[in-house]
Design brief:
By secondary structure, the chain is mainly alpha-helical. Helix content is 58%, strand content 6%. The longest helix has 38 residues. The protein is elongated.
Length: 382
């Protein structure tokens, strides 16, 4: 017998009657989630996340490590929603304030700012706890000045939305009616802060699915829902930094992602969803371990090459130490980054270029742009 995970409400939207789904509060009930059915997937996911945490602790400077990981997740999460910006586009914009796809780049930069804002609010004793209010504040930053900026940034929706189709009547999924959303989000808040004994990774997966079923915003739900997992993994102490970028696995398995969510709503298959989610966590964590290991080795090798070069300068050593958190540079950006003169910046860039660390990418004679190509290639998997 299928487990009932919610009820359908007949409501009117855009002049037609539709069946909107109101998910039952967590945790799954009637019967409870069968943790034995997902035990193997849970163990593999927990082991992979533990390896990722260890890989993160080995890096000498977490700031440059976080630069790449947060931006990679921001790029992938935004690409799922249709943007075309790449990590290179974002890095170039940060160095030069120029971009070939400025609107898409702005969306990615908003994601980075939104995640940082959420983490700051949680860490601040006078900030906000994990809650719908926190997600609203995060959503406000995410949607600032980009597509969807007119769709109530930072506010729970007050009208009916839908997923797929040209109207609610032919949609693939219709979330709860707007009057039910505040209560559904309040129930999610209560459960997140409850003493539910389920393992944290399982709870993160349940929370993500519940959030996506509620779909509380008019736009940006996918990105906020994926960010919620990042925040919960840190909130529940599995990682101390946002190193798990789930979008890499969700993007690879996109059709299965929607199939598993639909199966939860249709027949209560929480076990199928949870197993899928845990497989995605393990895949993403292993990808993170690989990237972290390769980045650590690359930066250590290049730093040795620069520090042992007889013709090196202090500025060149300082620049190699800062490159991982600014992998595309110009002379003027290095002047600002290191607080040095333009001739000193040019010399530092020249030393790194001669060592094969930096490569000129603009082809210009003036305002030249230099990229830490090997670093970007590892992050993008090329």
């Amino acid at each position: 017998m299928a487990r009932q995970t919610g009820t359908f409400r007949i409501t009117k939207a855009h002049g037609e009657e539709v069946r909107a789904f109101l998910p039952a509060p967590l945790p799954p009930a009637g019967p409870p989630l069968d943790t034995d059915a997902v035990a193997d997937a849970l163990r593999q996911a927990e082991d992979a996340v533990a390896r990722l945490a260890m890989a993160g602790s080995m890096v000498p400077d977490t700031e440059w490590f976080l630069y790449g990981f947060v931006r990679k997740e921001a790029v992938l999460s935004s690409q799922i929603e249709g943007t075309q910006a790449t990590l290179r586009d974002v890095a170039q914009f940060e160095a030069t304030s120029e971009a070939d796809r400025p609107d898409d780049v702005e969306e990615v930069c908003n994601y980075v700012e939104a995640l940082n804002r959420a983490r700051d609010l949680i860490a601040n004793p006078t900030g906000l706890p994990m809650s719908a209010r926190l997600l609203c504040e995060t959503h406000k930053v995410l949607m600032k000045g980009v597509r969807g900026a007119e769709k109530m940034p930072g506010a729970i929706r007050r009208s009916q939305n839908w997923i797929g189709g040209s109207r609610p009547g032919n949609a693939s999924y219709v979330p709860p009616p707007p009057e039910e959303v505040p209560g559904a989000m309040a129930e999610l808040d209560r459960w997140i802060h409850s003493e539910d004994p389920l393992p944290p990774l399982i709870k993160a997966g349940l929370a993500h699915a519940q959030f996506e079923s509620i779909h509380p915003f008019l736009d940006g739900n996918g990105r906020i829902g994926r960010m919620l997992v990042t925040l919960l993994v840190e909130h529940w102490g599995l990682l101390t930094q946002p190193l798990l970028y789930l979008s890499v696995a969700f993007k690879r398995r996109r059709p299965q992602y929607y199939t598993r969510l639909d199966a939860v709503r249709a027949n209560g298959d929480w076990e199928g969803w949870t197993r899928f989610f845990l497989e995605c966590v393990a895949e993403a964590a292993e990808d993170g371990v690989r990237v972290a290991t390769e980045l650590h080795a690359l930066v250590a090798r290049d730093r040795r090459a620069i520090t042992t070069n007889p013709g090196t300068t202090v500025a060149a050593i300082q620049l190699i130490d800062r490159l991982p958190s600014q992998p595309i540079v110009t002379v003027s950006s290095v002047v600002d980054l290191l607080g040095v003169t333009a001739p000193t910046a040019r010399k530092a860039i020249e030393i790194l270029e001669q060592a094969g660390v930096l490569r000129e990418t603009s082809g210009k004679q003036r305002d030249r742009v230099y990229a830490y190509e090997a670093y970007l290639s590892i992050l993008t998997g090329r």
